[in-house]
Specification:
7 strands; alpha+beta; 3-stranded antiparallel β-sheet
Length: about 160
């Protein structure tokens, strides 16, 4: 398990702290940065037979555990263009993904970002990608192509002075 504040592996038992309303599971070193929250990790369940059983509560998954990548900025245009290429109306697309037409129209206008399950349905129905993953953003320059780094910029500026 990793500290949600510093990212280091947690040695021993993790601490749950609260920082500005957010509860974080952190290492002992980072616990000083917030207020420790006392919550029981175990709860006792009374069965009909009269035997008490202790159950351990699992940490709920947060949104960062489920992220695949970021949605592309031009998602609305990609959806509209792909729909028009298939010669579908917004109603046809809505029926294909089993959603309301109003929702599709709002997404195509850019007023609404589709949630993950709807995004997957749209990608499958229209044969498009709406996620900007790490593989998509890597440099496509071949051998011999030089890309500048921050270090190059700093060295360049020092050389000009």
């Amino acid at each position: 398990m990793q500290c949600e504040l510093c990212g280091a592996p947690i040695q021993g038992s993790p601490k749950t702290i609260q920082i500005e309303g957010a509860e974080l599971c952190v290492c002992v070193r980072c616990a000083k940065h917030g207020t420790e929250v006392q919550q029981s990790r175990q709860r006792v369940v009374q069965k009909k037979t009269g035997i008490a059983v202790t159950q351990t509560r699992r940490r709920p998954r947060d949104v960062f555990d489920m992220m695949e990548g970021e949605i592309v900025e031009d998602y609305a245009d990609r959806i509209r263009v792909a729909r028009e290429e298939k010669e579908w109306s917004t109603l046809d697309l809505a029926q294909e993904v089993k959603e309301r037409e109003v929702l599709i129209k709002k997404i195509e206008k850019g007023d609404l970002i589709p949630e993950d399950d709807l995004r997957r349905k749209l990608e499958k129905a229209l044969d498009i990608r709406l996620i900007d993953s790490a593989e998509d953003t890597t440099s496509t320059g071949g051998p011999g192509r030089v890309t500048m780094t921050i270090g190059d910029v700093i060295a360049f500026r020092k050389g000009r002075k």
